[in-house]
Structures are given as C-alpha cells and as structure tokens.
C-alpha cells in the first residue's frame, strides 16, 4: 500500500481544484477520460462519462531492508550485506538459548556422576556452578539482546529472517570487546600498540593534524581509537558484522566508562586455575571510544577507490587473513601516498582458504617487489597472547612480526 504522508494530504486541495477545472471543461468539450500526475507524484484518473474520479497517493520508494512487504521470505534471498547483517543479528539474539544449552549439557553430564562420588563432589560445591553460571550467562544474554536490538534499529532490519546462527560470532565479539576495551586486555594492548604508536611518532612527530591513517581489519576498533587520540584522521575498515555491530553498540550505547558488564569466560570451564575464574566479570569500556574514527563497513580491497590517499596504513593481526596476500599488499601500496608509511604487526597464521601460505621473509621480499622500501632495522619479533583469559592454564603465544616500510617514491 502506498503511504499517505502529511505532504500528500496537503495536496488534496490541489487535486480537488484540478478535478473541478477538468470537470468544468468537460461540460463544454464533451466527455473526458484522462490520467495525469500532478506534482509530488499524486495520480488523478478522471472519466467524466462514467463519473469516475480516482486520486492515488504517490508511490514512495521502499527500503528493501525496512519494509516488511519487500523483504524476501528467506534470508538466502537477501542481498549482501543485508544477509550477513541478518545472520549476525540472529546470532546475537540466539546467544541466550545457545549458552543455556551449553550449560544444560554440562548439567546433564554432571547428573551422570555416580551417587557415591556425588557426595564427595557436593562438598566441593560443584553443583552451585550451574545456577551461578546460568545467572552470569543471563547478563551476557541481556547484553547480546540489547546489542542485537540496537543493530536492528540502526540498519532498519526489524524483522529477523531465519538463518543459520554463527555460533562463534558472539564468543569472538565478547573476546575482542574484552581484549580491546577492558582492563583485562590492557597488558596485551600495551605489548602490541606500543611499537605501532612509537613508529607513527618517529615518522610524523607531534604534528599530526590533517594526516590520514587507515586501519584495515580494525576488529573492535581500539587501535584506531588510540591513533585518533593522537590527532590523526583515522579510517577503520572492517567486514565482519559481529565486530561491526558490537562496535556500533559500544560507541552509541555507552553512557560512561565501565557501563557494561560481561562474563566472557562463563561457559569455558577448561584450563581453569580456580573455581571463581569462570565468573570473572569484565567491565567495558575502560575509555569512551573516540567518535571521530570513521568505520568503513566492507572489504578493504573494494571500499577505497581513491588511490594515494593515506599518510600511513597500520595492519595489526591482519595481513595473513585474506585469500591472496598479493592483493592485500598491492592494495596497501596503492592506498598509500608516495613515501607513505606501512606499519605491520601480526602472525603468519594463514587460514586454510589462503591461496598461499608464505613465510614472513617471503612476504617481505614480495613487499619489496610490489614497491615498498622495507626498513629492515625496524623489524622485531614480539611475543604476544591474543584475547587471553588472565587465569587460564592454557597460553597460546604468537611470535608476531613487526616492521615498517614505505611506499617508494619512485614509480
Ligand atoms: C584477526 S582479526 C584482527 C582484528 C584487529 N586488527 C585486532 O588486532 O584485534 C582480523 C580482522 O580483519 C577483518 N578482515 C578480514 N579481511 C578483511 C577485509 N578484506 N577487509 C576488511 N576487514 C577484513 C576480519 O573480519 C577480522 O575482524
């Protein structure tokens, strides 16, 4: 149904006037049949012989994401990025049932403990873990539901279309929120941000006004925030809607520091030192995200048509994530101004989808072929954890590779 708006209603007198003039004209010129469109798209159909007058409101353009009648019945038919947004939103709203199922499975396994053993374990207070963890998980669920509601309003996707849930998406968002925006993540951030911030300062000094920095694969955006705090104009780019929705929620729905509480370790009961570790709360954000950071949603390979536009590009845990490293390096090179600085820190983990799984040395040689002058003196190996639970008895250390390189001035 076309919508009738206030401006449409104001056109009714105009339409009435037109109709009277035409009707009067028909008295002198004989029967009249015509359809006309007057300003603002109001359509008038007049047939004086059959005494028919129809006035139709304008056809308003419909946003396919917001108008239920225009939404496809199945998520598979949604165009991108609506399909990914829909799936991420569904994953956040499904967190509650998923986490409670995980806890219910633990409870069911516990119910199989032999009666004799049960007496022993009861004195440990083990059974109390189920109610405590369900309560903590409900706090997470409220956060995930509020995040999802915020995302639905932001993207106008009020109706959830059924889709597969990405079970890891919410856990990853919680882990990255913790790493980027809680006190628990501070030690990791210091380790990896310090060399990056130092390299920027070494190159540009204090006079950062007007300098443009790009941070592709920005995740939950803390590095972009830190760079922006130094006065640079920062574009962050991210394509995963788990991260994007969480970032928007953090930026738009945070009134003060430590406004939100999460229990990111609540369903992870392995590698724990003590019974309390799983209920460790994290409070976010430790600082308010810098609203000057511009988040570009989408693929860094396609979202930036303008070449030579950045003074620096900073890649953190990023260059090993794509399909083709040559595409990534060529795009970083293209987007830098001549003489512009590329700072990299990250592992060489390469997903199974990567077309090539090069060593760090091979990547640096490739960078030279593409037109970077690599500063070999800048190179460091930096051992770091990634989104690590502080009390976990499992540690996964990356020996990340740090370097700086410049886009050669020669073509
Ligand atoms: C390992 S995570 C690191 C995130 C962040 N740099 C950090 O250190 O926390 C890599 C990120 O890059 C994003 N990403 C992968 N390919 C991308 C692309 N082509 N354009 C933009 N982002 C991309 C992923 O969605 C993911 O959030």
Automatic annotation (TrEMBL):
Membrane-spanning parts: none
Native species: Hohenbuehelia grisea
Keywords: Signal
Protein name: Carnosine N-methyltransferase
Range of residues in the leader sequence: 1-24
Top-level taxonomic group: Eukaryota
């Amino acid at each position: 149904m076309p919508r009738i708006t206030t401006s449409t209603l104001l056109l009714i007198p105009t339409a009435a006037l037109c109709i009277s003039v035409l009707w009067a004209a028909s008295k002198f010129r004989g029967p009249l049949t015509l359809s006309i469109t007057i300003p603002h798209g109001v359509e008038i159909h007049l047939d004086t012989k059959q005494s028919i007058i129809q006035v139709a409101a304008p056809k308003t353009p419909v946003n396919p994401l917001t108008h239920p009648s225009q939404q496809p019945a199945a998520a598979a038919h949604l165009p991108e990025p609506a399909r990914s947004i829909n799936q991420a939103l569904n994953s956040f709203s499904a967190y509650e049932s998923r986490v409670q199922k995980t806890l219910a499975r633990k409870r069911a396994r516990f119910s199989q403990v032999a009666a004799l053993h049960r007496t022993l374990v009861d004195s440990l207070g083990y059974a109390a873990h189920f109610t405590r963890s369900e309560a903590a998980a409900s706090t997470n669920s409220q956060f995930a539901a509020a995040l999802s509601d915020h995302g639905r309003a932001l993207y106008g996707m009020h109706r959830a279309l059924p889709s597969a849930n990405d079970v890891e998406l919410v856990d990853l968002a919680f882990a990255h929120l913790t790493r980027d925006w809680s006190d628990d993540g501070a030690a990791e951030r210091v380790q990896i941000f310090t060399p990056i911030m130092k390299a920027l300062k070494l190159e540009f000094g204090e006079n950062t006004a007007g300098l443009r920095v790009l941070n592709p694969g920005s995740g939950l955006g803390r590095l972009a925030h830190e760079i922006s705090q130094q006065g640079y104009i920062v574009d962050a780019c991210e394509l995963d809607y788990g991260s994007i929705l969480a970032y928007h929620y953090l930026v738009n729905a945070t009134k003060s520091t430590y406004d939100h509480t999460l229990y990111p370790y609540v369903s992870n009961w392995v590698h724990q030192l003590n019974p309390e570790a799983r209920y460790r709360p994290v409070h976010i954000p430790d600082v308010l995200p810098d609203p000057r950071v511009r988040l570009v949603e989408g693929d860094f390979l396609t979202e930036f048509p303008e070449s030579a536009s950045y003074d620096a590009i900073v890649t953190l845990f990023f260059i090993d994530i794509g399909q083709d490293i040559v595409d990534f390096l060529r795009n970083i090179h293209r987007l830098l101004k001549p003489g512009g600085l590329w700072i990299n820190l990250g592992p060489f983990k390469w997903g199974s989808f990567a077309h090539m799984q090069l060593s760090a040395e091979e990547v640096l040689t490739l960078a030279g072929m593409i037109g970077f002058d690599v500063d070999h003196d800048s190179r460091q190996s930096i051992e770091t954890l990634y989104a690590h639970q502080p009390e976990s008895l499992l540690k996964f250390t990356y020996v990340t590779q740090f370097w700086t390189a410049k886009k050669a001035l020669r073509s």
